[in-house]
Design a protein that fits this description.
Helix content is about 45%, strand content about 15%. It is of the alpha/beta class and about 270 residues long. It binds 3-methylmercaptopropionate-CoA (MMPA-CoA) (1HE).
């Protein structure tokens, strides 16, 4: 699918385009290893909140040799406690708009995915890691702490113990280790991540909007509540999803032999 312009005003450190119904944003600050300054973080907010209604999935990746070096450390020096809290809250707000935004988001990772870069990746729904990827949380050794929702999202992916180890000891994980422990769900050869991520985003964009909403907004909430509440919400959302006209069309298509079958993994 040919790339087309996406009409929105973004900073020069972010580049956006669309391919079919997939919106793509690229971190474009390779000279600073895609370090996340306020301009980029607020630009991401603009991107994820102004997606056109016909966009069904999004993809984020990074230019240069690394996905992201995390927080722009040059901005940290000037802040007092109050400003620090406001800054962290801003990241929370923006990353929540990624995780609980209009569409599912796929991230394509390579090189360093560290600190706030890992927090950004953790806010996306599917992570595709090229074999060059490595993960770290250098906050521990820099005298700081994660501030972009990492304490909330990362233990849900890899557990408190592994996150503690990464922060206390500076341990980094390879792409293969990250895949085994659930940081990524797809592993590709270097250079293949974008095509894989785009194919996944296109596949996701082919689901009904209601099902994608249920999967990205309702499933993680159900996972946080007691089982009885979870069952109640699940009954509601599943009946809402299946009542949709498009769901009925798809079920009919399967019953009439016009829909794809579930296949074995490659
Ligand atoms: C930066 C940053 C940055 C690079 N903030 N400027 N993150 C970190 O602790 C990771 C810090 N960065 C690194 O460990 C390395 O830069 C990398 C492993 C990512 C890449 O290494 P390399 O050899 O390719 O690049 P470099 O030579 O270290 O960096 C190139 C330039 O980018 C250089 O600037 P220059 O003007 O001297 O060319 C670096 O200073 C600059 N740069 N990373 C600012 N992070 C919401 S809380 C989240 C808390 C955190 O994310 S803490 C983790 C911060």
């Amino acid at each position: 699918m040919a790339a087309q312009q996406l009409k929105m005003t973004l900073p020069a450190s972010l580049r956006a385009e669309r391919r079919g119904n997939v919106a793509i944003v690229r971190l474009a600050r390779p000279e600073k290893r895609n370090a996340l300054n306020d301009t980029i973080v607020l630009g991401l907010e603009t991107f994820f909140t102004s997606l056109p209604d016909d966009i069904a999935a999004a993809l984020i990746y990074g230019e240069g040799d690394h996905f992201s070096a995390g927080l722009d450390l040059s901005e940290l020096q000037e802040r007092d406690i109050k400003q620090g809290i406001a800054h962290s809250s801003q990241w929370h707000r923006v990353f929540d708009k990624i995780q609980f935004g209009k569409v599912p988001v796929v991230s394509v990772l390579h090189g360093a995915v560290v600190g706030g870069g890992l927090e950004l990746a953790a806010a996306t729904h599917i992570r595709v890691a090229e074999r060059s990827t490595y993960y770290g949380l250098p906050e521990g050794s820099r005298g700081i702490y994660v501030g972009g929702g990492g304490s909330v999202r990362l233990p849900r992916l890899i557990g408190v113990a592994r996150m503690m180890d990464m922060m206390l000891t500076g341990r980094t994980y390879s792409a293969e280790d990250g895949q085994a422990m659930g940081l990524s769900t797809y592993l590709t050869e270097p250079g293949d991540g974008f095509a894989k991520g785009l194919a996944l985003a296109e596949r996701i964009g082919g689901n009904t909007a209601l099902t994608n909403f249920a999967i990205t907004h309702i499933l993680p909430r159900i996972a946080e509540v007691d089982p009885a509440s979870g069952y109640a919400v699940e009954s509601l959302i599943s009946s809402i999803a299946q009542a949709d006209a498009e769901a009925k069309n798809r079920l009919t298509a399967f019953l009439e032999g016009r829909a794809n079958k579930v296949t074995r993994p490659d």
